[in-house]
Design a protein that fits this description.
Belongs to the peptidase S24 family. It contains 4 helices and 10 strands, in the order H-H-H-E-E-E-E-H-E-E-E-E-E-E. It is an alpha+beta fold and about 190 residues long. A 6-stranded antiparallel β-sheet has the order 5-6-10-7-8-9, with no helix packed on it. Strands 1-2 form a two-stranded antiparallel sheet. A two-stranded antiparallel ribbon has the order 3-4. Strand 8 and strand 9 form a beta hairpin. The longest helix is centred in the N-terminal third of the chain and has 17 residues. About 15% of the residues are buried.
């Protein structure tokens, strides 16, 4: 695929992020100073590669549209090393990486610092798989006496408790009920 193909795809992704829609062929033809036919041909190529799909007269993002380039190598967090110059390939879809069961998954924005020592910060997005069973040591979203919280599940004196991952907070011991709502399966953090 040409450099122009990738530039147009990048522009479509940016526009979709801002506008939550794919612009019409006419809009793009005007903005890109090309014919509507040229835009339609590009859309047809994008459809062939799984970036767009057509429903009636509307073009919609398809799975590959949300894929991001995955570098062909790891990035060292220790000693610096030379990395290959290859830009990587398209194909990493964050949703597919984080979510195994879409119909049973939900995202929550984390508020508070009680899980900071587990690397979970205020403002992070917790990816939860909704289920009522969990193992000791799992980080869970749980209803404690009717109130929801995110903590580590543990047993003390034969009873389940919720452990914060910050020494400034006490262990939560339910007075009446403890119901598991979901298990943490992923975390998303935005640095800017």
């Amino acid at each position: 695929m040409s450099q122009l193909f990738h530039e147009r795809l990048a522009d479509l992704r940016d526009r979709f992020q801002r506008e939550q829609r794919i612009p019409s062929c006419r809009e793009l033809a005007k903005d890109w100073s090309v014919s509507s036919t040229a835009v339609w041909k590009l859309f047809a190529r994008l459809r062939e590669h799984g970036y767009l799909k057509q429903e009636g007269n509307r073009w919609l993002p398809d799975t590959a549209f949300f894929a991001r380039a995955m570098a062909p190598a790891t990035i060292p967090a220790g000693e610096p090393v030379e990395l290959p110059s290859d830009d990587g390939d398209e194909g990493f879809v964050i949703d597919q990486y984080l979510v195994d069961n879409p119909s049973r998954s939900v995202l929550y924005t984390v508020r508070g610092d009680s899980m900071i020592d587990a690397g979970i910060h205020d403002g992070d997005v917790a990816v939860l798989e909704l289920r009522s069973q969990a193992k000791e040591g799992d980080i869970v979203a749980a209803y404690v006496d009717g109130k929801l919280t995110l903590k580590k599940l543990a047993r003390m004196n034969g009873k389940y408790v919720l452990i914060p991952c910050n020494k400034m907070y006490p262990v939560i011991r339910p007075e009446r009920t403890l119901e598991i709502y979901g298990v943490l399966v992923g975390l998303v953090r935005k640095y800017r």
